[in-house]
Amino acid sequence: MSGTLAWAVVALGLAVVVVRRRSVAVGLVTVQALLLAGVAMAEASNTDDLGAAFALAVRGVALAALFLVIVSRTREPGPVRAGVAPFARAGVAVGLALAFTWLVPSIGLESSQSERAMLALVAFGAAIVATRRATLHQLLGIVMVENGLVLGAIELPGGASLAVELGVALDLTLIAIVAVVFHERIFAEFGSGDTAVLETLRD
Amino acid sequence: MTSREALALAVVGLPTLTAILVAVVPRRVVQPVALAGLVLSGLVAIALGIVALGDPSAPEVSDWVVIDAAAGLMVGVIGLVGLASALASPAYLHSTPSGLFGQAHGTRAYYAALAAFVAVLTAVPLAGNLGAAWLLVEATTAASAILVGFSGKPRALEAGWKYLLLTSLGLGFSLLGIVLLASVTPGGTLDVLSWRSLSADVPAGETTLVAFLLVVVGLAAKIGWAPVHNWLPDAHSEAPPPVSALLSAALLPAVLLVAWRVERALEPAVGESTGRTVLIGFGLVSLGVAVPFLWRPLAWKRLLAYSSLEHMGVIALGIGFGTPLALAGVAVHIAGHAVAKALGFYAATPLLGHEPRAAGHAVTGIARTQPALGTTMGISLGALAGLPPSPLFLSEILVIAGGFDAGRPWAAAAAAVLLALGFVGLAHALVETTGGSTRRRERANAPGLRSVVAFGAAATVILLALAGAAFWLPDTDIVEALVRGVG
User: Fold this and answer.
1) Phi/psi zone of residue B102: left (φ > 0), alpha (ψ -120 to 50 degrees), beta?
2) Which residue in A has a C-alpha nearest to residue B212's C-alpha?
3) What domain range is B372 assigned to?
4) Residues B288-309: tens digit of each pLDDT
């Protein structure tokens, strides 16, 4: 993967951290997933790799369709406030990414940019889950973490990447379907997908 | 195909088939089909457990499947709890309609998700490969989250969402660790993630150490080890009681077995002392976090949930100490905790009918207003507290003795103090819950009480048998096999 492409994927991730609208965030994550699928296809050396890349692309499109349907079915009266300001969110995300880059030693992917991009996406995903209150944004945080892992898997030498890519595609689809069931029910119960309403269970 | 392989195929295939059948059969036969399938699955799983533990010196290990003593123990436990949870489900479904799926589809959705959950859960201990184990553990999240939020009540939705999100994020970090391991291991195919290959081929180095920590910390989020346990009390207290039993008695130790296999496989690369110290650290922190909550008056299921945190801490200590004594304690503890904890959760269905305030508050004097229910709850809580002759009393002694035997006297002593404090908290809860002063209640209103009393009688027999087994287990081939591991 070229350095430019790696940093484009990271920039898309950072944009998801700061954007307000759910539909825009879904679009950005989908473009990110399709870019990764494109890289996987370009770097495929056999039919198995091509199959995995195709599965990634299908996963990206299917999740986008699912999320956009959900956005249209659960219209919020206004964007759900994040609780943390956009610049602060970006600061948390970048700080976490730098910490990961510092803590995790070099792992021998095909380029050092790919390693850093992978860690940045994992950090951004974790930051989104921690700082956003909208259920759909939190779910997109999980998708972002898995996109980072897909990036790592694509750049992994050997045949393990195929299994990781397919595993992530299958697993993420399952988790997303269950999360969407919860999102819809939470919206029906509370009239909003804001997790601030889900804070009754405390000891 | 050997008899073990055939049984292993059946224990995963039968609940899978049940889930499919439940999804397509006419509504009036959903429950009979589900119960028949799940009971049969449970019996086959118990049979596999008996076969694997009966000849522990001849495990079957391949790159994808492992059927050894540890897997046999866990599959047997999952079979037993899965069977009992299936039988406890009709009373729950009769008393609580589904808000998540509606009246029309609730029963079908419940049994389909339950059977799917049992299928993937049973496969977890049999996975011979870290990649496959990760995938199965993540699949348990999808199946069980639906069940946690089944009632559709706001608190259940909150618990289910938190469970789904936090465990998925944790497992994401685990997968990052797996990618790191795959990157440093020569070979480059998925076979390098088999337990034997990890043990033989992963080179020592800081990348391996970071990978090990990521995998274990990610799994800890699913096991419910403190300090990454936040979802556990909520999910266990808000899930349907038969599902809470499966989560606590079967899911947590099954994932813990994966963490143990990871530690054992990577010991040559990260060092025995480092790997075991991480597990002991999680064990002590979990005990330390759980004990203050055991002293507080908590709603019944929430009390049981914090007790799960305590007991997962004990098991972490046992595998961290890693001596034959400690591992004998671990084996008894996993089985004893499963039986006592499942019984406690099953008692929640009649308890909530008898005293609806029990959903959110500590209740007292249940034995005064409903003696059979109070006695059953007392058996469960007494066993979980480690009140002799509970097998958990003996298993905790074995684990602590194993700690001294392993040359970790400070950790063993700290564990002993924390367990003593936890015992006092649970013993107080036992006295108050069963015999404390109370107002009048309607005795007859306790749905599913008859089956819970039957479970209580069976559980008492099993617990006493386990207490007896704790005396001879340390010198057996089973413990020798546990010490040896997959390698």
Assistant:
1) left
2) A104
3) 271-487
4) 999 999 999 999 999 999 999 9
Does residue B149 fall inside a structural domain?
A: no
* pLDDT tens per residue, range B81-112: 999 999 999 999 998 877 788 777 899 999 99
CB-nearest to A201 from B158, B205, B206 is: B158
Rounded CA-CA distance B71/B159 in Å is 30
Residue A2 banded pLDDT, cuts 50, 70, 90 = confident
* Residue percentage of chain B with pLDDT more than 90: 85
Q: Which residues of chain B have a CB within 8 Å of the CB of A195?
A: 161
Q: Does residue B90 belong to any structural domain of this protein?
A: no
What is the per-residue DSSP string for B150-217? TT--HHHHHHHHHHHHHHHHHHHHHHHHHHHHHHHSTT-SGGGGBHHHHHHHPPPSHHHHHHHHHHHH
Token couple for A92: 């948390």
Q: For B225-234, what is the mean pLDDT?
A: 94
- Contact: B149, A185; criterion CB under 8 Å: yes
> Which pTM was predicted?
0.95
| Whole-number pLDDT of residue B420 | 98
Name the residue facing B172 among A122, A135, A179 (closest C-beta): A122
Residues of B in contact with A184 (CB under 8 A): none
Q: Is the predicted pLDDT of residue B187 greater than 80, yes or no?
A: no
CA–CA gap between residue A155 and residue A166 (Å, rounded): 15
State whether B160 and A182 contact (CB < 8 Å).
Answer: yes
B 108-147 residues with CB < 8 A to A: 131, 134-135, 138-139, 141-142, 145-146
Of B304, B137, B296, B297, residue with least CA distance to B235 = B304
Of the candidates B169, B184, B298, the beta carbon closest to that of A108 is on: B184
Q: Verify whether the Cβ–Cβ distance B135 to A158 is below 8 Å.
A: no
Is A196 touching B (CB cutoff 8 A)? Answer: no
Structural domains of chain B, count = 1
Number of domains chain A contains: 1
Length of chain A: 203
Q: Which residues of A touch B159 (CB under 8 A)?
A: 201
Q: How far is A1 from chain B (nearest CA, A)?
A: 16
Contact A175, B168 (CB under 8 A): yes
| DSSP calls for A84-115 | S-HHHHHHHHHHHHHHHHHHSPP---S-HHHH
Task: Please tell me the distance from the alpha carbon of residue B485 to that of residue B279, in angstroms, as a whole number.
Answer: 16
Q: What is the pLDDT of residue B188?
A: 63
Q: Is B183 close to A157, i.e. CB distance below 8 A?
A: yes
Domain of A94 in residue numbering reads as 3-200
Do the domain assignments include residue B17? no
Given A118, A129, A198, which is nearest B158 (Cβ)? A198
Place of tokens 């249940």: B366
pLDDT tens, residue by residue, B128-140: 999 999 999 999 9
- In this predicted structure, the answer to whether residue B266 has a pLDDT above a threshold of 80 is yes
Q: What is the pLDDT of residue B445?
A: 76
Does residue B308 lie within any of the structural domains? yes
CA–CA distance, A135 with B164 (Å, rounded to integer): 11
Which of A152, A158, A197 has the CB atom closest to B187's CB atom?
Answer: A158
The overall average pLDDT reported for chain B is 94
Q: What percent of chain B has pLDDT over 70?
A: 99
> Three-state DSSP class for B390?
coil
